[in-house]
Amino acid sequence: MTISELLQYCMAKAGAEQSVHSDWKATQIKVADVLFAMVKEVEGRPAASLKTSPELAELLREQHQDVRPSRHLNKAHWSTVYLDGSLPDSQIYYLVDASYQQAMERVPEQVRHQLSV
């Protein structure tokens, strides 16, 4: 999977907005100002930081060398996933969906209703 493909998938989510975090040289994808993905090259490889439950993050890191604690975000919840590694694209899409759902839980209810129209 490429960064472009992942960004396209993220931006298809209702309310998704893209910006650049200049300090980290990363593309941030947010919904209603809540971050759900950060995409950039890490060590010359395409990667995305995605949020999961701490339990899932730990399990993924144990099972896949291409999933690591995120460098700049809360390491218990955020993992950096290499897009060109051992994780199948379908699992990366699942993790994007899960991260988006966690972000939506933090979005005010009124905004969530507007986005679901």
TrEMBL record:
Q: Under what name is this protein listed? A: Predicted DNA-binding protein, MmcQ/YjbR family
SUPFAM superfamilies assigned to the protein according to its UniProt record, in alphabetical order: YjbR-like (SSF142906)
Q: Which UniProt keywords apply?
A: DNA-binding
Alphabetically, the GO molecular function entries are: DNA binding
Q: Does the keyword DNA-binding apply?
A: yes
Task: Give the matching InterPro entries.
Answer: YjbR (IPR007351), YjbR-like_sf (IPR038056), YjbR/MT2646/Rv2570-like (IPR058532)
Xref: PANTHER family: CYTOPLASMIC PROTEIN (PTHR35145:SF3), CYTOPLASMIC PROTEIN-RELATED (PTHR35145)
Q: Which residues cross the membrane?
A: none
Query: Lineage, please?
Result: Bacteria, Pseudomonadati, Pseudomonadota, Gammaproteobacteria, Enterobacterales
Look up the domain of life of the source.
Bacteria
Q: Pfam families from the xrefs? A: YjbR
